[in-house]
Design goal:
By secondary structure, the chain is an alpha/beta fold. The chain folds into 2 domains: 11-66, no CATH class; 69-396, Aldolase class I (TIM Barrel). It is built from 16 helices and 9 strands. It has helices spanning 11-15, 22-32, 39-48, 51-66, 108-116, 138-151, 162-172, 176-186, 201-207, 214-226, 243-260, 286-299, 310-313, 315-320, 354-362, 393-396, and strands spanning 69-73, 75-78, 125-128, 156-159, 231-237, 263-270, 328-331, 367-371, 377-380. Strands 7-1-8-9 form a 4-stranded mixed sheet, covered by helices on one side. It has a 3-stranded parallel sheet with strand order 2-3-4, with helices on one face. Strand 8 (367-371) and strand 9 form a beta hairpin. Helix 3 (39-48) packs across helix 11 (243-260), helix 7 packs across helix 8 and helix 7 (162-172) packs across helix 10 (214-226). The protein is globular, with a radius of gyration of 21 Å.
């Protein structure tokens, strides 16, 4: 018998629809009863459930974990370079080392000037990722992080994908633990989740064969977690992979999270096809986007948060995902990232201030919560509306 619940999702009506198969009802009830679904059950749900059922289940899980709240933070990005030794077919951002067209390589001082630009502004995080450049080695980045922390000790430094780190440590001839310890001692607080792409080797070998392997990505994050360095996790979807590959990817993350509990959030990243070697591959539809986010929320039962990265989806589509399991909208960004704008994302100059984000969240009747990187609450904007806060640049940017 289907479980009846009092929920604004109206999921009880959907579950009891006579047109839904007994197997879908059985799997759905496991989700409602907080029972873990298997890989096989997840694949069946993904392939056979309606968008209405997936959205309702995902929304139920989101509300169970985080109520009606939606998180965001005030952050900015530093992208040291887009020159890269790797040749990922899906990437529109990177340039080979010898290419000068549309490439950049920031000096230490140039990056510190970006940090200084935010002096007096209430940002809480700097996010540092970029291409893999041989000259920007482990010592180079340790010096940078140390200077950032000396300049602004309270700024959380979230830095480097596992792909960057694998190359960095290999060049420095240090182990993963040794390299991470050096970065942690310099002031690195956490890691983003980029470079995961798709873990299944059949797909990974076709789209990014020459960079960090699945085992290396997972090992770097597991080591970081055991050293007290939290991280995020991502999945690049909507290219040549299928539902099975996505579930396989998320299952490896779920298993690692069972062991370490070190992931803060999961971020599905939509493949964009402009100016890369996979331009002939059509991008996913908005319906497929919604299904992907919903399945992420349903399957990753040990992840507290699912994030919609609005510079990639566009702010309107990211807002839509708040009804499909998403409880985080990333941050203010402030026009400091080019990774997705170069690939044809809707947001060509991605920048939203605090007011923009708060209003976007409130428009769909959610509660905007400003957080720090580790999801500690800084301000509830329903309890402390913007108009009641002193109108200073440091509050609104």
């Amino acid at each position: 018998m289907a479980v009846k619940i009092d929920s604004p999702t109206g999921i009880d009506l959907i579950i009891n629809d006579e047109n839904i198969s007994s197997e879908l009802k059985r799997i759905s009830n496991k989700v409602l009863e907080s029972e873990r679904i298997t890989v096989e059950e997840a694949l069946h749900l993904y392939e056979n459930a309606s968008i209405g059922l997936l959205g309702s289940l995902a929304n139920y899980v989101r509300e169970r974990k985080n109520g009606n709240t939606v998180f965001f933070n005030r952050n900015f990005h530093i992208e040291p370079t887009n020159k890269c030794v790797f040749t990922c077919k899906f990437c529109s951002y990177s340039r080979l080392i010898q290419q000068e067209n549309e490439s950049w390589e920031l000096t230490h001082e140039m990056m510190m000037n970006i940090v200084r630009k935010y002096d007096g502004i209430a940002v809480t995080e700097v996010h540092i990722v970029g291409g893999v450049h041989p000259k920007m080695n482990l010592d180079f980045f340790c010096d940078l992080i140390r200077d950032i922390k000396n300049h602004r000790p309270d700024l959380h430094v979230k830095a480097f994908t596992a792909v960057e780190l694998e190359y960095m440590f290999r060049k420095a001839k240090v182990s993963i633990a040794e390299g991470l310890q050096k970065l942690k001692d310099a002031g690195m607080d956490s890691m983003p989740g980029g470079g995961a792409e798709i873990f299944h080797e059949e797909i990974r070998n076709k789209i990014c064969h020459d960079k960090a392997s699945t085992e290396e990505w997972l090992s770097i994050h597991e080591t970081a977690h055991r050293m007290g360095i939290p991280s995020n996790a991502t999945m690049l979807y909507g290219h040549i992979e299928n539902y099975f590959h996505r579930i396989h990817h998320m299952n490896l993350l779920r298993e690692l999270q069972d062991r370490t509990h070190g992931f803060n959030t999961f971020i599905p990243l939509k493949f964009r096809n402009k100016d890369n070697e996979m331009s002939e591959v059509s991008e996913s539809t908005i319906i497929e986007d919604m299904k992907c986010y919903a399945m992420s929320r349903i399957f990753l039962d040990n992840f507290n948060h699912v994030k919609a990265y609005w510079p990639m989806l566009g702010r309107t589509n990211a807002q839509l995902m708040l009804n499909f399991g998403v409880d985080d909208m990333d941050g203010t960004i402030d026009d400091t990232t080019k990774i997705y704008s170069m690939a044809g994302a809707e947001e060509q100059n991605p920048s939203m201030n605090t007011r923009d984000l708060v209003e976007l969240i409130q428009e769909v009747n959610k509660v905007p919560i400003e957080r720090d990187t580790l999801y500690n609450t800084i301000r509830n904007y329903n309890e402390n509306p913007l108009e009641e806060i002193k109108q200073e640049r440091s509050y609104l940017n």
